[in-house]
Write a structure and sequence with these properties.
30% helix, seven-stranded mixed sheet, alpha/beta, Metallo-beta-lactamase, Chain A
Length: 253
């Protein structure tokens, strides 16, 4: 299995995963032109993608799903509740396929497990991509460290792991109090420190690597997100960055 992040953050999200000839994009929060260009960085053609799978209705994950479908001819998988919340933003789509949160989607020998989260979306999910016994988690927009999240992380070989904010930067920043409360509340995002606590709790069962993902542009810095994970599990542990501004390196699972 090979993967890279095209972009990750509140300015737009899309993650590529390939395994056994199946090529998947998770979320479509960046423009078609940007996605095509960033796929090409790693020698991939977006028109070869098997499907686009949408996690939830927030615009940074779904706003260009219609463009991906119309411009590149890609089928889009989305829950009906998510679609109902986003239909006016997506436009006409000729190849639209539905799943229910909690379903497992099958693409050849690749399975995509969908897991509901308490994030404040209409019907949000995270993903575990499984093939030949390898499991990759795409774990962002989590809400809070909900029951079962630690054991899910232990079951993975690798993971994109939300590190949305640094608590000190959020507290001292210029966001209004209600937005700060939303971010650190049960339906918001998890912090660098919360991600590090989850990773530390895995002990020897932690994934072989994590990529810190969905970093805030106002309340976090890459070095803080990466540093928090290294403080928890040691500097020898592989921690990568899913950037807000450019594709990540091509990673293997």
């Amino acid at each position: 299995m090979r993967t890279f992040s095209l972009q990750s953050g509140s300015n737009g999200n899309s993650i590529y995963v390939e395994a056994d000839g199946v090529r998947l994009l998770f979320d479509a929060g960046i423009s078609g032109a940007t996605a095509e260009k960033r796929m090409a960085v790693h020698g991939r053609d977006i028109r070869d993608v098997t499907a686009v799978v949408i996690s939830h209705d927030h615009v940074d994950h779904v706003k260009c799903a219609g463009i991906f479908q119309r411009k590149f001819g890609l089928p889009v998988y989305v829950t009906r509740r998510t679609l109902a919340a986003t239909w006016c933003k997506l436009g006409r789509m000729n190849d639209l396929r539905h799943f229910q949160s909690g379903d497992t989607l099958t693409f050849g020998r690749v399975q995509v497990h969908t897991i509901r989260t308490p994030h404040d979306a209409v019907d949000g999910v995270v993903f575990v991509v499984e093939c030949d016994g390898k499991r990759l988690g795409i774990l962002t927009d989590l809400g809070h460290p909900f029951p079962g999240l630690a054991s899910l992380l232990e079951s993975l070989d690798a993971a994109y792991l939300e590190c949305n904010y640094d608590p000190h930067m959020l507290e001292s920043g210029e966001y209004p109090p209600d937005l700060k409360a939303r971010i650190r509340g049960d339906g918001g995002h998890i912090s660098n420190d919360e991600a590090a606590t989850l990773l530390r709790a895995c002990g020897r069962r932690r994934p072989r690597w994590v990529a810190v993902a969905h970093l805030s542009g106002e309340n976090n810095l890459p070095e803080l997100a990466v540093g928090a994970q290294h403080s928890a599990v040691g500097r020898d542990y592989p921690v990568f960055l899913a950037s807000r501004h450019e594709p990540s390196e091509l990673l293997s699972v």
